[in-house]
């Protein structure tokens, strides 16, 4: 089922921090990119059900720094709508490429590749060396990070 949602640009202060931390649980990292990010939220019946944040990596490349759907609303197509909106926003902002970094397994990897993003780099041990909080998914600790991208 795909829920009717409204996605719009917003200020960083309008994004619920609890939702951002679902995707990226280290608060200082989130605060750092919020300060320079393009922020968007998805609403359903007046409630915020999803968020995403884009940040410039270069004049032609934006990075999707965070995308998250409220836990009770996941698996209903909202994430896919947000990701499509992010691709559209990136083009509108003048980018020719969108990148994202994610763990080397788990459903976000399927989620991104379904939208056409492809792996272009592997960062072995990234989460062990550079991420201050241990990240687990499906009972398995994330160690390596993948970088994915799509060119428009
Ligand atoms: C990743 C996320 C944004 C996807 O949003 P969503 O609204 O749940 O995604 P959708 O309903 O649009 O699902 C799209 C696809 O993602 C995958 N997917 C999403 N949730 C899944 C789950 N719980 N288990 C397995 N696959 C899942 C499936 O491939 C799904 O396709 P399908 O419905 O045909 O099986 C959401 O699960 C989320 O917020 N997760 C926590 C934060 C996070 O991990 N962010 C990404 C960090 S890299």
Question: Would you write up a description of this structure?
Answer:
This protein is α+β, with helices and mostly antiparallel strands and 152 residues long. It is 28% helix and 38% strand. It starts with 5 loop residues before the first strand and ends with a strand. It binds coenzyme A. The site of coenzyme A has 17 residues, from helix 1, strand 4, helix 3 and helix 4.
Task: Assign the CATH topology.
Answer: Aminopeptidase
Number of domains: 1
Give the strand order of the largest sheet, numbering strands 1, 2, ... along the chain: 1-2-3-4-5-9-6
Low-confidence stretches: none
Classify the secondary structure makeup into a structural class: alpha+beta
Portion of residues in beta strands equals 35-45%
Question: Which architecture would the CATH scheme give at its second level?
Answer: 3-Layer(aba) Sandwich
Give the % helix.
Answer: 25-40%
Shape summary:
globular
CATH superfamily: Gcn5-related N-acetyltransferase (GNAT)
Q: How many DSSP-defined strands?
A: 9
Measured on Cα atoms, how large is the radius of gyration? 15 Å
Order of SSEs, N→C? EHHEEEHEHEHEEE
């Amino acid at each position: 089922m795909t829920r009717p949602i409204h996605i719009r640009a917003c200020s960083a202060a309008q994004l619920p921090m609890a939702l951002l931390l679902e995707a990226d649980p280290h608060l200082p990292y989130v605060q750092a990119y919020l300060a320079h990010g393009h922020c968007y939220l998805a609403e359903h019946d007046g409630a915020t059900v999803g968020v995403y944040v884009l940040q410039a990596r270069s004049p032609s490349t934006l990075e999707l720094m965070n995308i998250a759907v409220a836990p009770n609303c996941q698996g209903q197509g909202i994430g896919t709508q947000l990701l499509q909106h992010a691709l559209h926003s990136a083009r509108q902002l003048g980018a020719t490429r969108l990148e994202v970094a994610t763990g080397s397994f788990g459903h976000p990897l399927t989620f991104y590749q379904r939208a056409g993003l492809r792996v272009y780099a592997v960062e072995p041990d990234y989460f062990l060396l550079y991420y201050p909080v241990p990240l687990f998914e499906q009972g398995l600790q994330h160690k390596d990070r993948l970088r994915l991208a799509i060119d428009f």
